[in-house]
TrEMBL record:
It comes from the Eukaryota. Its EC number is 3.1.3.56. This is inositol-polyphosphate 5-phosphatase. Keywords: Hydrolase. Residues 1-243 form the Inositol polyphosphate-related phosphatase domain. The keyword Hydrolase applies. Belongs to the inositol 1,4,5-trisphosphate 5-phosphatase type I family. The keyword Hydrolase applies. InterPro entries: Endo/exonu/phosph_ase_sf (IPR036691), INPP5A (IPR039737), IPPc (IPR000300). It comes from Alectura lathami. GO terms for biological process: phosphatidylinositol dephosphorylation. It is an enzyme of class 3 (hydrolase).
Length: 255
């Protein structure tokens, strides 16, 4: 369930207008089972991602290279706190547990409204998250659910993120005619992010004049882009901003 895999990161160093910074593309571990993610708050998968991201950040700031501002971006696989989300979305529901006949293992959870003819609100299986009203993840870009997006809070002293104003980036339908529809495999979440060091934050929020053009958004809101919607960060960087790179050739040493 929580084995290390092919997922990892790649770090490159850039120097633009005499300003050096690192770009780190990352892919962290996913939630293998909705049922296991639901058991604890935070989930066991959240803990695995925490350790992996901490490892990457430690590598970025080690002593081999001169320290510069950095951006970390990609599929972090950050998920909403599943237990808290389910308890909120199904606050007035009753839960039915279905177990496998041979192993007695829980294979399905069904949440029904207490009244209204016991309408099914949510069905939860290993790879099924079937909530009856997807609009909750789209209305106002789903930002009412950002309170359950908690995985980054552990790194608030090391990483900064601009305010999110786009809907959860995963898991979208791969049907070309269903560009805005989520699949019912996972709870929608902001898996795809662009984070930065606090020195990089200062770099993008400063400009030579009062004009600050910074956009943090997703691509293709109404068309099929695959199961993830790409996320981008657009900003201006002033010539000479940040820390000039003194030893450019050192960034090319293979370790």
């Amino acid at each position: 369930q929580c084995k290390w895999s092919r997922k990892g990161f790649i770090r490159t160093r850039w120097c633009i207008t005499d300003c050096a910074f690192d770009l780190v593309n990352i892919h962290l571990f996913h939630d293998a089972s909705n049922l296991i993610a639901w058991e604890t708050s935070p989930s066991v998968y959240s803990g695995i991602r925490h350790k992996a991201l901490g490892y990457v950040l430690d590598r970025i700031i080690d002593q081999r290279f001169e320290k510069v501002s950095y951006f970390v971006f990609g599929d972090f696989n950050f998920r909403l706190d599943a237990k808290a989300v389910v308890e909120t979305l199904c606050a007035k529901a009753t839960m039915q547990t279905i177990r496998a006949a041979d192993t007695n293992e829980v294979v399905k959870l069904i949440f029904r409204e207490s009244d209204n003819d016991r309408k099914v609100m949510l069905q939860l299986e290993k790879k099924l998250f079937d909530y009856f009203n997807q609009d909750v993840f789209r209305d106002n870009n789903g930002t009412a659910l950002l309170e359950f997006d908690r995985e980054l809070s552990v790194f608030k002293d090391r990483l900064y993120e601009l305010d999110i104003s786009f809907p959860p980036s995963y898991p979208y339908s791969e049907d070309s005619s269903q560009g805005k529809q989520y699949m019912n495999t996972r709870c929608p979440a902001w898996c795809d992010r662009i984070l930065m060091s606090h020195s990089a934050k200062e770099l993008i929020l400063k400009s030579e004049n009062d004009e600050k053009i910074v956009i943090y958004d997703h691509i293709g809101p109404n068309v099929c882009m695959g199961d993830h919607k790409p996320v981008f960060l657009s900003f201006r960087i002033a010539a000479g901003a940040g820390k000039p790179i003194a030893n450019v050739h050192k960034c090319c040493v293979v370790q």
